[in-house]
């Protein structure tokens, strides 16, 4: 009977003792002597629910509301509103069935007490039932016993994969528990310990634990107190660890010795793809040894070194190293005094790199005094680049002459998708108009960030927006047409080659260069379950087959070279099973996703962070 009642109420399992009646549950606190009977209205007639419920039914409903309230308190982090008994009753009500109620727990900025931390730890111990995946307890000033009970509970937890302990008071005193957690836990993949008080001793324990940990992939130690010795401990770990892919060591005063240790680790590490060393005073000497390591390392893709005072000389070292490196795709060098006193050496070397090389794919140069002269040196050969996807030049002191050089490069450039020129107050109306005219010829740029800090900017702004919208839809059409041609060609061209007409056999010169290019990739295939239309299509001359497939591009948005690459791709066995990104990258030379914005540091910042700062 109870099971039927609970199912009718939508309760999965509430088999606990009931103590309160339904009338008591809904009694008005203002009149304790007069209990109000809970009723419902139907067709103008009032019905009292008590007459349809037994005493056990009363207790069932009352318990349901009590357990539901306990669950809401946990989700909000209001542990002071519940007791251990409440928590145990809630867990027992699930009858061992995994719940989805606690998958994400965001308990930040609550100043949790020790008693509340104990309740949270108790919840984490029921990991199979509570099923917590994301646990964010940042900004709670946790230290000592408060953090200890949580870390101990997480040692055996098997469900939490993301743990945020940032902005607490974790120091070397708690390092023992942090080390134990990383040694024993086998589920956490992302861990943030940023903005704590972690020193070299805690760094030693973390390093020791990560030498044997095989699950953690992301680690943030930003803005702690590692110093040089802590940096050396991290470098020892990076020489051994083969799982960690993202590490943030910014704001730790690593000094030259610590940076040197990290650089030595980069020479042998083959798993790390994202490294942040911002605000560590790398300077010119540090940038030189970092550049030397980049000529050897082939796995690092994200390099983030803002606020390090590398200057033009340091940028030159990095650019020279990137000429021998094809893996670095994200480079962030903002706030590095590049272009001070009109120096254009760094911009000139970077411009030559972008003119002749395939990396980086995104670069952030914001808050460097590059100026118009540096901008001219940077964009002198940029029209040849086809792979740079995003460039941030916010707050770089660029004037009209610099904007004119950018506009001229954009007229011929075929790769740039996103450009930020925010907070360059000297651009003026003429500069905005020059960009608008350049976009009339440019069919690739989809996003541009400008100030529009002049009177009557509306007309120019609408013109720029119209061109950007045109480019977005044009690129979408290109990708769709390419995929349609690929699908048709996969079916229609993957058949034996002996179907060539006698005319083509007797006169080989009639076979086009494009046909010969594609035929060289065709191998014999059997025909299985092919429709009569396709069979008749197979016996047409190859040139006619080719023209029929290309006619799918009704608006002629693809170039001849792109069409050749698509048809070649469709008839190669080694391309079967490849994804859309690989296909479009090979046939178009580069693939620029339409579904998400270009982001610098997607591994380190959320979309909200990008809106706050000057990045896209």
Automatic annotation (TrEMBL):
The keyword Repeat applies. It holds the Pfam family LRR_6. Gene3D superfamilies: Ribonuclease Inhibitor (3.80.10.10). Keywords: Repeat. The keyword tRNA-binding does not apply. This is 25022_t:CDS:1. It comes from Dentiscutata erythropus. The lineage of its organism: Eukaryota, Fungi, Fungi incertae sedis, Mucoromycota, Glomeromycotina.
